[in-house]
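In response to the reviewer comment on reproducibility (Comment 2.3), we provide here a single inverse folding case reported in full, input and output, so that an independent group could reproduce the run without further information from us. The C-alpha cells appear first.
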C-alpha cells in the first residue's frame, strides 16, 4: 500500500480518528471594508484577533503546533486580506492548497515587538465551506538573528466583506506529534533554529485538508488581544515572501542508487544555495534517514541538520527548515528503495538584473562568485554567513547593501531598509548601537562597525542610491544621538570608544587609533549628507566643527612622510587604515604616490576591509594596481572549482579568520568596485537624479555594465584601443548623467557624440540637443547628458 506525506504540497500519512467537522461561520463577501480602504499602517488597535495557543501545551524549544478553522462564505470574495503573526515561522494552507511556505520573519523589529505578514487569500477561497490550516514553528531559543518572545502563539485575522475571521477560542489546536529533537550534536548557540526530526509513524494524515475531522483536537486557548505581551507591538513585514524556485533534480541525480547500500549519497547542487531537501522512498517503518549538507560545520561550528523516521511503504518528505551547501548528504539505511531525491531552493525575492562583463575572465568569474555570495546571505536580514551564524553583522551589511545596487533589482532595497530600521530599533537608552540585531543572546557593541553602518558607506550610501529619504528621516535622530555620545580630544581628534569588543578587522597589524578617527569622520560625512538632504540645517554647525577638527588634526598627528601611523601602533603599516584615509578624503593628492606604495606592499586587510583598499587605489587613479591586487588576493577563491562562493578569510578553516566560512558576506566588495569604478557608474545626488559615468579601465580594453535604478536602467559599454576610446550610455528618464572621458590617460584629441563633433583639443566645438559641456575634472572632458542613448567616439 502506498502512503504519502504532506508537507507543502506533499502528502502526509498516519491518520487520526475521523470525527464530525467543526462548525463554520458565515461571512458576507463585501469588499473592501471601510477600515481597510486607506490601508493605514496597522497597529494593535486595528486588530480584533486574539493570540491563541494549544491547550495544555508547554512552551519549549523547537515546538511545532497545528491550528485549524473552517468558515462559510456566501460567495467568492474579490479580495480577502489576511494578517498573520507568529513567533517564529508558519506554513499556511487554504482549502488544502499551500499559500505560504515559511511565513513570518525572525522576531525583533525592536527588542519588544513582532512582525506580521499580509497575504491576499481571495484566489484560494470559494463559496461555501472554506478551511484554514496553519503549522507554527516556535524556535523557543534566543539567537544572533532572533529575539524570542518566550511563548508560542498564532495571531490571524482575515477581512472579507463586513465580517472577519479571527484567531480565537473557536479554532482547534494540536501539538504536532511527529516533530521532535535529534539529540546531539545540536546547532551552535548563535542559531535560534533547531535541528528537525520528523517521525512519520506519528504523523497526522491530512490535517491540513478540507473536511478533516478535528473534533478530537482541543479548542485553542486565547492568550491575549493583539498588542499584548509578550509579542507586543505589531510591525508589517517589510520584505517580500521568499522566492520559491520549485523542486529540482540534483546535478548528479542520474547516478543515485535505486536501492541504498547504506553509504552516504552526496547529492550535488548546482551552486551553494538555501535549500529544503526532499526525498521519496519505499521503506519499512522505523528506519532513520539523516540529512545534512557538506557545509554542516561551515565556519567550524555545527549548524542545522534533519532526521526522518520512516513509516511503512512509499512516502515523501521535504525538510521544512532550510540549510545550505554545495551538496546535500542523505544517509539512508541499507535496503531502502530510493524513488527520488530532490531539493527546493528558496531565497530572497529579487532578480539578478545587474551585469558587468569585461575582457578579463578572472574579473568575470570573481564577480559571479560575489553575486552568489551576496544572494546566499540574504533572507530575514542580511547575514554574515548562511550556516554558522545567519546574523546581521553590520560591517558585512555595509558591503552587501552597496553590492545590491549593482547586482540586483530594486526589490532588494527592502532588505537594506529593514536592516537599517532594525539597527536603530535596537538602539539602547544610552544611545549605544550594536549588532547583530535582532538578537536575544548578544548585546555587545563593536564601535567601528557601528560607525561604518550609520555613516557615509552605510546609511548614506543607501539613501544616495535609493533616493529613499523617508527612511533616512526616520532613523536620522538615532544617527545623531549615536554620534553625539562620542567625545573629542583637546588635540582635535576623536576619543576612541572601546565598546564591548574593540574590533577593527580580522587579521594582524590593525592600527585602531587611525581607524577610530577615519570611521568617525566618515560617519560625520554621512550625517552631514543626510542633514542636507533632509533639510536639517540646525545640525550642520555641530557636524562641521567636528569634521574640521579631525581634518585639521589628522595629518599632523599621523602622517610621517611615508605613511599614516598612530604613535601607539608598533606593527607593520596598516594597509586598511592608510586606504581609509584616502576613502575619507583625509589624504591629499600630494600623498597619493607614497600611499600607493603602501598599498602595493602591505597586505593585512581581511576581505572585509580589502574593499576599501581597492576603492582607495581607484580614487588615486590606480585602477590597474587595484586589478593586480584583486587578482593576487582573490586568486585562490576564484580558482577553486568546487566552491561557488567567496570566503571569510583568504583561506578556508584554520587558514581563514574566525572559523573560516566558505560563504561570507563581507568578501564581495570587488563586485561594487567593478561597476562603480572600472565602469565608473555612481550617483551624484539621491536616487540617481544626477549621476556620473567616469570609467577607470586599468588593464581592461572592454567593459560593459548595467543595473536597475529607481529611475530606470543604466547601461554603459566601453571599448578602447590604441588612440581610440568609445563609450555608449543608455540613460533613463528623469536623470542627468555626467559623462567624463579620460582624455589625458589615452591622449585623446577629439570627441564625437552621436556622430557630431563636440570637443577638440580641450575646447567645446559643437552642441547637440540634450548634451552640454560640464565642469571638467583633471584629465577629463565632461558632458551633461539628458535621458536617451549617447555614443561617444573619441580619438
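Designed residues, in position order:
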Amino acid at each position: 500500500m502506498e502512503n504519502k506525506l504532506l508537507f507543502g504540497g506533499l502528502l502526509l500519512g498516519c491518520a487520526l480518528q475521523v470525527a464530525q467537522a467543526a462548525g463554520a461561520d458565515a461571512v458576507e463577501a463585501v469588499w473592501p471594508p471601510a477600515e481597510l480602504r486607506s490601508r493605514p499602517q496597522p497597529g494593535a488597535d486595528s486588530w480584533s484577533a486574539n493570540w491563541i495557543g494549544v491547550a495544555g501545551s508547554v512552551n519549549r524549544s523547537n515546538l511545532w503546533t497545528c491550528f485549524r478553522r473552517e468558515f462559510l462564505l456566501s460567495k467568492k470574495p474579490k479580495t480577502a486580506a489576511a494578517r498573520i503573526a507568529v513567533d517564529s515561522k508558519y506554513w499556511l494552507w487554504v482549502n488544502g492548497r499551500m499559500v505560504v511556505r515559511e511565513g513570518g520573519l525572525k522576531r525583533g523589529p525592536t527588542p519588544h515587538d513582532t512582525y506580521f505578514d499580509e497575504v491576499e487569500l481571495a484566489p484560494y477561497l470559494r463559496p461555501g465551506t472554506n478551511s484554514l490550516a496553519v503549522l507554527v514553528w516556535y524556535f523557543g531559543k534566543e539567537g544572533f538573528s532572533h529575539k524570542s518572545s518566550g511563548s508560542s502563539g498564532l495571531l490571524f485575522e482575515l477581512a472579507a466583506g463586513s465580517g472577519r475571521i479571527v484567531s480565537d477560542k473557536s479554532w482547534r489546536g494540536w501539538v504536532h506529534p511527529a516533530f521532535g529533537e535529534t539529540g546531539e550534536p545540536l546547532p551552535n548557540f548563535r542559531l535560534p533554529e533547531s535541528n528537525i526530526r520528523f517521525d512519520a509513524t506519528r504523523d497526522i494524515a491530512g490535517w491540513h485538508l478540507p473536511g478533516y475531522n478535528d473534533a478530537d483536537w482541543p479548542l485553542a486557548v486565547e492568550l491575549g488581544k493583539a498588542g499584548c505581551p509578550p509579542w507586543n507591538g505589531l510591525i508589517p513585514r517589510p520584505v517580500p515572501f521568499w522566492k520559491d524556485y520549485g523542486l529540482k533534480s540534483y546535478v548528479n541525480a542520474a547516478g543515485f542508487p535505486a536501492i541504498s547500500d547504506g553509504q552516504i549519497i552526496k547529492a550535488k547542487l548546482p551552486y551553494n544555495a538555501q535549500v529544503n531537501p526532499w526525498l521519496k522512498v519505499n521503506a519499512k517503518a522505523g528506519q532513520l534517514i539523516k540529512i545534512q549538507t557538506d557545509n554542516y560545520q561551515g565556519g567550524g561550528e555545527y549548524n542545522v541538520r534533519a532526521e526522518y523516521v520512516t513509516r511503512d511503504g512509499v512516502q515523501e518528505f521535504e525538510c521544512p527548515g532550510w540549510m545550505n551547501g554545495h551538496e546535500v548528504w542523505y544517509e539512508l539505511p541499507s535496503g531502502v528503495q530510493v524513488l527520488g531525491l530532490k531539493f527546493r531552493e528558496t531565497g530572497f525575492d529579487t532578480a539578478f538584473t545587474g551585469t558587468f562583463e569585461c575582457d578579463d575572465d578572472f574579473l568575470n568569474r570573481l564577480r559571479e562568485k560575489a553575486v552568489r555570495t551576496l544572494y546566499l546571505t540574504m533572507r530575514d536580514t542580511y547575514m554574515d554567513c548562511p550556516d554558522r551564524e545567519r546574523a546581521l553583522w553590520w560591517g558585512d551589511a555595509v558591503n552587501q547593501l552597496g553590492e545590491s545596487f549593482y547586482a540586483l533589482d530594486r526589490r532588494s532595497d527592502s532588505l537594506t531598509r529593514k536592516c537599517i530600521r532594525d539597527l536603530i530599533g535596537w538602539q539602547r537608552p544610552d544611545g549605544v548601537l550594536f549588532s547583530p540585531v535582532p538578537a536575544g543572546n548578544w548585546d555587545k557593541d563593536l564601535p567601528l562597525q557601528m560607525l561604518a553602518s550609520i555613516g557615509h558607506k552605510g546609511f548614506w550610501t543607501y539613501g544616495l542610491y535609493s533616493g529613499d529619504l523617508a527612511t533616512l528621516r526616520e532613523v536620522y535622530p538615532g544617527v545623531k544621538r549615536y554620534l553625539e555620545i562620542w567625545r573629542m580630544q583637546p588635540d582635535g581628534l576623536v576619543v576612541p570608544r572601546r565598546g564591548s569588543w574593540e574590533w577593527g578587522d580580522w587579521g594582524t597589524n590593525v592600527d585602531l587609533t587611525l581607524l577610530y578617527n577615519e570611521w568617525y569622520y566618515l560617519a560625520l560625512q554621512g550625517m552631514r549628507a543626510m542633514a542636507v538632504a533632509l533639510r536639517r540645517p540646525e545640525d550642520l554647525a555641530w557636524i562641521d566643527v567636528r569634521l574640521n577638527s579631525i581634518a585639521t588634526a589628522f595629518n599632523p598627528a599621523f602622517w610621517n612622510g611615508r605613511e599614516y601611523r598612530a604613535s601607539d601602533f608598533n606593527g607593520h603599516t596598516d594597509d586598511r587604515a592608510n586606504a581609509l584615509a584616502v576613502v575619507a578624503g583625509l589624504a591629499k593628492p600630494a600623498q597619493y604616490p607614497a600611499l600607493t606604495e603602501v598599498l602595493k606592499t602591505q597586505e593585512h586587510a581581511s576581505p572585509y576591509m580589502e574593499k576599501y583598499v581597492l576603492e582607495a587605489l581607484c580614487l588615486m587613479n590606480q585602477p590597474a594596481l587595484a586589478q593586480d591586487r584583486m587578482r593576487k588576493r582573490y586568486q585562490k577563491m576564484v580558482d577553486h572549482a568546487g566552491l561557488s562562493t567567496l570566503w571569510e578569510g583568504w583561506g578556508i578553516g584554520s587558514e581563514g579568520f574566525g572559523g573560516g566560512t566558505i560563504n561570507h558576506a563581507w568578501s564581495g566588495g570587488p563586485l561594487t568596485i567593478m561597476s562603480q569604478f572600472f565602469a565608473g557608474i555612481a550617483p551624484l545626488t539621491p536616487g540617481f537624479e544626477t549621476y556620473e559615468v567616469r570609467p577607470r579601465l586599468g588593464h581592461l580594453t572592454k567593459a560593459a555594465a548595467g543595473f536597475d535604478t529607481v529611475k530606470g536602467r543604466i547601461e554603459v559599454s566601453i571599448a578602447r584601443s590604441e588612440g581610440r576610446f568609445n563609450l555608449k550610455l543608455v540613460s533613463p528618464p528623469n536623470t542627468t548623467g555626467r559623462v567624463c572621458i579620460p582624455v589625458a590617460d589615452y591622449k585623446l584629441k577629439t570627441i564625437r557624440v552621436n556622430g557630431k563633433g563636440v570637443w577638440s583639443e580641450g575646447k567645446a566645438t559643437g552642441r547637440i540637443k540634450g548634451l552640454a559641456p560640464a565642469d571638467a575634472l583633471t584629465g577629463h572632458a565632461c558632458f551633461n547628458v539628458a535621458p536617451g542613448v549617447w555614443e561617444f567616439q573619441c580619438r
